[in-house]
Amino acid sequence: MRNHDERVSQTRKMMLIRENRMSLHTPLVRNNFANEMRTLWSYWDTTDNILNLGFPGTLMSNVLKRQTLILQAIARVVTFMPVPTVTFTNKLPAHVHGQFRHPQWEILINENSLNYVGYGTFMALVSTIYRALRHAEQFFRIAQGLACNQLSFPRLSQDQSDQCGFDTQQSAQQMSDSVMLQPALTAQQIATLICIPNSVAKAATRNAEALFQGFIDTARPEWFKAATVLDEVKDWMNTTFDDSDTQAALKKNPNGDDVARVSTCHANACMIDRSHAMEKDAFGVATYIEPQVQMRIGVDPALLPRFGRMHPAFDHLPS
Ligand SMILES: [Zn+2]
Asked: Is the whole-model pTM more than 0.90?
């Protein structure tokens, strides 16, 4: 009996460790995502517009079906942090497939990218979605690291204090100072400091010590700028919330509207500033995901960039 209990608790412990070690850069999560993207492409086009997605008799347009499969994929893959809401919009520039907005905890996906059915564009959309999810994880890890005191927040700039709703530079500075005297930040403070919803900050504080430790104990991805996972997260935070980088990014993006200003790194700067620590990591993880999706689908997009799902090269996929 005792042995049985020990085995059960051992299994639970193993499961917790597995959960702990989940990240968009770990092989398990990348595999899950690649499988979901194979499903997405498999059912991208069906000539009769009918796909049974577990709802018998459901009749869906291809666009609605693609949206449903994308939402399903994200919900299945993102199990270790609050799932960002997904909004399909026609407001993004034509060349931007999507972006992440941390204040809203939202991923915007360009509707036009769902209408175009070339395989090359599909792969670009896939890597954009993964990049957007990675940006969400970057903010979540920063929040988790702050919650368990493994990270300490850099001083606030005027610009961020405006965006984050502080009344004056003084109050922001007071908060920053008071923060340094405290052993750990509250969810509310974290939400305010890094501009994320309270609910997300609250989720990050839950079991933060163990979960953040699990995260920084994952194998260091080869594209990281820093020598350790912990140092990489520090880089993400310091380069995003340090005055000079933010100001530089804003200068490079003079036409940015309010949305772009708030999430400079995660919107237009995806195109302009790939040297930013968060961008370098997001592009790194996306570069890694592409061959994996390609392998699952079994066709090289370089060979058939403009062909759609109905090309005979994809006949082996379920439909
Ligand atoms: Zn980005």
From this structure: no
